[in-house]
Amino acid sequence: MSIFGFRISPSSAINLDKVDRTRFEELCRIEPDAMRCMACGSCSATCPAATFSGMSVRKVLLNLQRGKEEEAFRLMSNCMLCGKCTMVCPRGINTRHIILSICRIYEKEAGR
Amino acid sequence: MKEIVVIIGGGIAGLEAASQLLKLGYSPIIIEKEDHLGGKVANWHKLFPDMTPAKDIVDELIASSKDSNIFLNTEISFINRLQDSYNIKLSNGISIMTKYILCTTGFRLFEAEKKEEYGYGIYNQVITNGDLEHWFNTGKDERIENSSMQAIGFVHCVGSRDEKARNSQCSKVCCITAIKQAIELKEKFPDAQIYCFYMDLRLFGKKFEDFYIKAQKDYGIHFIRGRVSEVSENIEGKVIVKAEDTLAGKPIKVTLDLLVLMSGMVCNPDTHKMAGMMALQVDSDGFLKSHDNVFHITSSTKKGIFYAGACTGPKTVPETLAEARSAVLDIHSQIISGQ
Ligand SMILES: Cc1cc2nc3c(=O)[nH]c(=O)nc-3n(C[C@H](O)[C@H](O)[C@H](O)COP(=O)(O)OP(=O)(O)OC[C@H]3O[C@@H](n4cnc5c(N)ncnc54)[C@H](O)[C@@H]3O)c2cc1C
Ligand code: SF4
Ligand code: SF4
Ligand code: SF4
């Protein structure tokens, strides 16, 4: 690959018109609390995997809502299911359970 | 002789004060420049956080203050300060002598067209919070009736917290109003995706946080942290909104069937005119300046002149009513101490 010259990077912009919400809505049906996140960041701050991998329940939920599923899966692959994030969430969201539900729903849909 | 108290402004603050003054045996005179009582609340549909019909509140206040002297369509022509009283000349030619004046002149909704980048008055599908309340009340608004309503957006802080609009203060009620209106629209258009673009969510009052959680969980309203930078129109007449999703750190774009601008509460220019006649101080935010903001919010720095409600800054209905009662008590104490 050439290291010189111009390269157009793919747009990182989020286009909400194109987001397919089917799976996120399915997630919300079994995990209604998935919508209640207020982005405080307590989960990421306490997550033992965060420092090394950037894992963050907040970011996973946000990425799923914005249609950035691959990014969410990449983050989630670092989760150890230790449940610390659930202990600290001020909204009382069962984040660990949500992570498991995400795995179930999205794997099923993706045929993985 | 019953002591006369002149109340300038027949909104909910003025009405509640009049009704309390009547109970204490005084003789209130309400001066209202519009042709109806109730002020802004008379234009609203349902009130947060209990979804109380605004009409019920206004009707009740009008009923309990009906024994006051009420002048509608009337303004103050001038006010003369005498030894220990005021001589007020009204636009209908009547003169009143009083020792006590209560200013309840309220606020004005920020003119959304001043924020040209949001396209109010330019694009058909951009409306304000006030327009939406009007639609809830009358069911008449072609912009809403003639569209498909698949996606609706709310822009918080329109003309508030914005030095470019010369209002750096927070209007306080618009975050919760946006949430209330988003829920009401979702009930009417259950298939619509609804987005609230906010800078901070300021939900200070009793039950407000519950309302927010309900909007997220039960109504699936999407909250996007980021200030809308610009709005444009596409060929189908839909509006395209651009912002930064600051939580994702990415630009975000969405096409909407309706965009609602949360116009802020700003100072009323009529209040400035009135303040000029009585040499009252105006605060840096343009609202009337209280004696101080902790202990004597309902007092001015002038003897015999009191304030209640949104003329001193953005307030909710319960706060406005509480201030009206508190101002009446201040007036009552002054009267009985013979000052
Ligand atoms: C979109 C929106 C929705 C809202 N919804 C809610 C809600 O759901 N719940 C809630 O608690 N609060 C709500 N509020 C806040 C509420 O509107 C205010 O708390 C309330 O209107 C304040 O009442 P007021 O009597 O002080 O002022 P106003 O309602 O502004 O009344 C002032 C009155 O004085 C008159 N006046 C002004 N100047 C003069 C003059 N010089 N001479 C004679 N008359 C004069 C005006 O014509 C008016 O009738 C909302 C506000 C907005 C902007
Ligand atoms: S359960 Fe996963 S996301 Fe939560 S703290 Fe543990 S590793 Fe982090
Ligand atoms: S701790 Fe809970 S509310 Fe806070 S960001 Fe994480 S999931 Fe959201
Ligand atoms: S109440 Fe909310 S929308 Fe209104 S000015 Fe304050 S932060 Fe902005």
Walkthrough of the structure:
The complex is a heterodimer of chains A (112) and B (339). By secondary structure, chain A is an all-alpha fold. In chain A, 50% of the residues lie in helices and 2% in strands. In chain A, helix 1 (22-30) crosses helix 7 (95-110) and helix 4 packs antiparallel against helix 5. Chain B folds into 2 domains: 4-106 and 268-337, FAD/NAD(P)-binding domain, CATH 3.50.50.60; 112-265, FAD/NAD(P)-binding domain, CATH 3.50.50. In chain B, 27% of the residues lie in helices and 27% in strands. In chain B, strand 15 (230-233) and strand 16 (239-245) form a beta hairpin. In chain B, helix 1 packs parallel to helix 2. The model of chain B has no long low-confidence stretch (mean pLDDT 96). One iron/sulfur cluster (SF4) is lined by residues 47-49, 55, 57, 79-85, 95-96 of chain A.
Q: How would you concisely characterize the structure shown here?
A:
With about 110 residues, chain A is mainly alpha-helical. Helices cover about 50% and strands about 0% of the residues of chain A.
Protein topology:
The complex is a heterodimer of chains A (112) and B (339).
Chain A: E1 14-15, H1 22-30, H2 42-46, H3 50-53, H4 57-65, H5 69-76, H6 84-88, H7 95-110
Helix pairs in contact in A: 1-7, 4-5
Chain B: E1 4-8, H1 12-23, E2 27-31, E3 46-47, E4 52-53, H2 54-64, E5 69-71, E6 76-81, E7 86-90, E8 95-98, E9 100-103, E10 107-109, E11 126-128, H3 129-138, H4 142-145, E12 151-158, H5 174-188, E13 193-198, H6 208-217, E14 222-225, E15 230-233, E16 239-245, E17 250-256, E18 258-263, E19 265-267, H7 269-278, E20 305-307, H8 317-336
Parallel strand pairs in B: 1-2, 1-9, 2-5, 9-20, 11-18, 12-13, 12-18, 13-14
Antiparallel strand pairs in B: 3-4, 6-7, 7-8, 10-19, 15-16, 16-17
Helix pairs in contact in B: 1-2, 1-8, 5-6
Bound molecules: flavin-adenine dinucleotide and iron/sulfur cluster (3 copies).
The site of one iron/sulfur cluster (SF4) has 13 residues of chain B, from β12 and α5.
